[in-house]
Amino acid sequence: MAVPALWPWGVHLLMSLLSLGSGLDTLEVCPSLDIRSEVTELRRLENCSVVEGHLQILLMFAATGEDFRGLSFPRLTQVTDYLLLFRVYGLESLRDLFPNLTVIRGTRLFLGYALIIFEMPHLRDVGLPSLGAVLRGAVRVEKNQELCHLSTIDWGLLQPAPGTNHIVGNKLGEECADVCPGVLGAAGEPCSRTTFSGRTDYRCWTSSHCQKVCPCPRGMACTAGGDCCHSECLGGCSQPEDPRACVACRHLYFQGVCLRACPPGTYQYESWRCVTAELCAHLREVPGLATTFGIYEGSCLAQCPPGFTRNGSSIFCHKCEGLCPKECKVGTKTIDSVQATQDLVGCTHVEGNLILNLRQGYNLEPELQRNLGLVETITGFLKIKHSFALVTLGFFKNLKLIRGDSMVDGNYTLYVLDNQNLQQLGSWVTAGLTIPVGKIYFAFNPRLCLEHIYQLEEVTGTRGRQSKAEINPRTNGDRAACQTRTLRFVFNLTEEDRILLRWERYEPLEARDLLSFIVYYKES
Predict the structure, then answer these.
(1) What is the phi/psi pair of residue 280, to 5°?
(2) pLDDT tens digits for 123-176?
């Protein structure tokens, strides 16, 4: 029997399939992993076939190249969220560490990215020869001073939208010897050529590893010999047209088979596999903690969506009458990004304190409202400081009570400090926000007019509790047009090169309230 010819990258794929077995029968699923400081911590990946969540490897300052010698995790084929590498010293390539990593699904992203390689001082090439798909999210490769072989990667073969990638600040192309196998005297068969970003070139991950380019309809995987896999396969397969022989699944996995949809009696979980109702009921988002997993519209979810809740002993999500009550114990939670609000989705009763410190971002309100918009009660205090990204607090659209069980500095239930762009308090006045104990404090909010704060005092019942210094008229609203006055012009003269205007003297209550006059004009 003749042995089929292998494509230039086929030897590597064949070895990968031999090391993995012929299919998906023995998947070992691991939760998100944050591996830092010690190279020995990487042993936590030992038996993982799939990291269901994210994989972060970072801050290994004392590591050397010798520490990574012989270290390999050939079983790992998938990461369902994102892969992040940051300041791992001594690591020169990922080719031995993750020789069979095939898919990064990007179900959840890190600031919009599914693959992040940042400030890796000794990394010489990415070296992920089995990587066949980054299903969602962009790639960020930045500030890696020794990193080459970036120009030889066709990201368009891996991603649906490679145009959003951010690949900057790496070793200059003219300083790299980016030669693919079989080119300019390099050993091996020549790699395939493709056109990416207007440039046709040989495609490889390293000087000895070609990038996979399948001779199949775009997006389809293939065997080491170049035969097309089943349409539900992703990244490769051991047998053509066999959904049981896939390295990874394009859509869903169940009992060793890749499927387009989950079979009856099973439910989609984490966007890549099917589980039974019994398994869904016993899943734990955080090991050791009680679970509220529910089934909703054919999916097994870590929690029922807003407006739905589990009804008694049933695992299925049912629609609530009005708002679904959901208590969330947070202690003191600092929210410094939109991502930090995701575990408060659906919460109506926050037991603890919230501190908002959103220094950067753009148009955050829609996402904040999705995550915080159902909160009705905060049992402790609410502190909003240095949140330059906030224009309004309207995302707390259902907040009715800040109870003040604990207070800022033992005095303040609501504390709003140094929010340079804050202009509106949202619906707190019309919704009737109540603050039964403690004071409110507002300072250095230059675009928030005092009238909004005074209205809030009335509604919350806090008028008279705080002094004038605690709602400072000098530092709140001092850069906003909070009061309008009509100036009466008494004289104007138009000449060829100038206009002379004169108006009645404006006398504010205090002279220092008037800084200057600014006249805007438009040429006719």
Answers:
(1) -60, -40
(2) 999 999 999 999 999 999 999 999 999 999 999 999 998 989 999 999 998 899
Rounded CA-CA distance 17/456 in Å is 66
Counting residues of the chain whose pLDDT is more than 90, the rounded percentage is 69
Nearest alpha carbon to residue 388 among 444, 441, 440, 427 = 444
CA distances from 375 to 355, 399, 491 (A): 14, 6, 56
Q: What is the pLDDT of residues 470-495, one digit of tens each?
A: 999 989 998 887 877 777 887 788 88
| CATH superfamily entry for domain 29-210 | Receptor L-domain (3.80.20.20)
CA of 396: how far to CAs of 326, 421, 423, in Å? Answer: 16, 17, 15
Architecture per CATH, 327-460: Alpha-Beta Horseshoe (3.80)
Q: Please, which residues bridge with residue 492 across strands?
A: 501
CA dihedral 426, 427, 428, 429 (to 10 degrees): 110
CA distance readout (Å), 317 to 239, 277, 299, 310: 40, 12, 10, 5
Q: Phi and psi for 335 in degrees, rounded to 5?
A: -105, 105
Q: Could you tell me how far CA 398 lies from the centroid of its own chain?
A: 26
Residue ranges of the chain assigned to CATH 3.80.20.20: 29-210, 327-460
Rounded-to-10 torsion of CA 282, 283, 285, 291: -20
